[in-house]
Amino acid sequence: MPDTCGFILHAHTRPGKAEAFEAMFRAYVEPSRAEPGCIEYHMLRDQQDPNLFIFFEVWTSAEDLAVHMALPHMQHFHAQRMEYLSQDLVVRPIEMLSHASATAIPR
Predict the structure, then answer these.
(1) Per residue, what are the HEC states of the chain?
(2) Which domains does the chain show, CATH number per domain?
(3) Nearest-CA neighbor of 58 among 6, 93, 103, 101?
């Protein structure tokens, strides 16, 4: 899947901000999955560090990701992200080497 645009993002929240951050982003998961071009959108929480959230996203193209990032709620979050985070977001681009999910594999 070489034309896709994917990344893993680490968001480390400030003490006392994890619950608010989780509530805010939980509300974004399903609408994001419904957006054109979204292949995968997952929000994870580290079991050893409850202030660490990990996002796994794969989009059909960089253009689809750009549309997602330009949505008002994403712009609002990015403008105020440091109110929630102890350090800025760490984003690692990835290349998909397998099918999008186990359910996408033909049986």
Answers:
(1) CCCCEEEEEEEEECCCCHHHHHHHHHHHHHHHHCCCCEEEEEEEECCCCCCEEEEEEEECCHHHHHHHHCCHHHHHHHHHHHHCECCCCEEEEECCCCCCCHHHCCC
(2) 5-9+13-51+58-95 (3.30.70.100)
(3) 6
pTM: 0.86
Q: What is the pLDDT of residues 51-98, one digit of tens each?
A: 999 999 999 999 999 999 999 988 988 899 999 999 999 999 998 888
CA distance linking residue 10 with residue 46, whole number of Å: 10
Question: In sequence order, what are the residues at sequence separation of 6 or more whose Cβ sits closer than 8 angstroms to the Cβ of residue 44?
Answer: 53, 54, 55, 56
